[in-house]
């Protein structure tokens, strides 16, 4: 149950953090609560106010309405402008870096806080404005609430200046690559253990002749965003069976496509089938919480777009290769997650379908190599990056994968580089890799 809640909460937070409404909604709610609190204070202490450098003496009811109306009108106008600028920024980012990177911009707290600040101020001013009584009644003038509205307006001016600066820097290629790389490194540190756990696995009863294989298929279609492996382990233990996971986070599955293979004495019933399918969180798009290739593919998309004839920006591609080098060097220094799960007695219960080093390197380099034909600087930098990665590991399997990609880059350079000196430079880097 604990594992179930963690996976669900992480997936929910990923969806909430990439929405424009969540933080603005919280800030608006906070503004309403602030109004109720200050309104209570104003009623208990009607003469309490804090003049701002002599600008606000105790105002009349009409003066308070004018101040609040002015702040509310200007704030909602600026909020509309901020929203328009945000949409333009997202459009530029999608065209230059790819639509998959829109999540990174939408997840930025800066955009959400700026938008939420203006909307919250607008709602607060409306609430305070509604609390001022008509002139023919015993007038109630919330002096403290009006002063706070002015403070919020001045704060929004500073926030607007920050927002303009943030937009100007957020769409720079270096900053986009840095942010994606930071997310990737954080994910690697959490996904790949620093130390390998050498737990001994005892043979499972799956070898009994009476057991049989049963394929369970998906009841939904879409991308697997996360898998509740703890839930699968509980199901396997409670039903005395072995569950082999056939898909992993990031894979696209169609309805009735194979999800797991169950080895058990009897065929799983509908309830068990439903529980197993419920352990796979499936959505309309990929999510990064268990998909380590997600951020890698984002960097690759930036690089391949930069190498396209329409953009032709090899320097951005070189920057992506630099960050991929850092990520892959970190991966080879750590251990891949376990491919199996045992129960408390050490019996094998769940076999996982996890990423491997060959697949990660292919995801990181194949598309860049394929789009770098004729670009000597990019091909040379890729070999240099592979050389650095190889220096960080002694694992022969890893080195064999890196050697395979060096050979592919070498062949691509011989076929696509027309200048002999470029081919010689590339071959010199290849020989340096082979010499090491």
Quick tags:
436 residues; alpha+beta; Aldehyde Oxidoreductase, domain 3; 3 domains; five-stranded mixed β-sheet; three-stranded antiparallel β-sheet; 15 helices; 8 strands
Could you explain how this protein is built, in words?
It is a single chain. The strands form two sheets. The chain has a five-stranded mixed β-sheet with strand order 1-5-3-8-7, covered by helices on one side. Helix 3 (61-97) packs antiparallel against helix 5, helix 3 (61-97) runs parallel beside helix 6 and helix 13 packs antiparallel against helix 14 (396-416). 63% of the residues lie in helices and 8% in strands. By secondary structure, it is an alpha+beta fold. It has helices at residues 2-17, 22-44, 61-97, 102-107, 109-131, 143-170, 173-191, 229-238, 270-278, 293-307, 314-332, 357-371, 376-391, 396-416, 420-435; strands at residues 212-217, 222-227, 242-245, 252-253, 258-264, 280-283, 340-342, 348-351. The chain has three domains: 2-171, no CATH class; 186-192 and 292-435; 205-283, Pyrimidine nucleoside phosphorylase-like, C-terminal domain (Aldehyde Oxidoreductase, domain 3, Alpha-Beta Complex). The longest helix has 37 residues, at 61-97.
pLDDT < 50 stretches: 206-210
Helix content: 55-70%
Shape: flat
The secondary structure category is: alpha+beta
Number of domains: 3
Brief synopsis:
This protein has 436 residues and is an alpha+beta fold. The protein has helices spanning 2-17, 22-44, 61-97, 102-107, 109-131, 143-170, 173-191, 229-238, 270-278, 293-307, 314-332, 357-371, 376-391, 396-416, 420-435; strands at 212-217, 222-227, 242-245, 252-253, 258-264, 280-283, 340-342, 348-351.
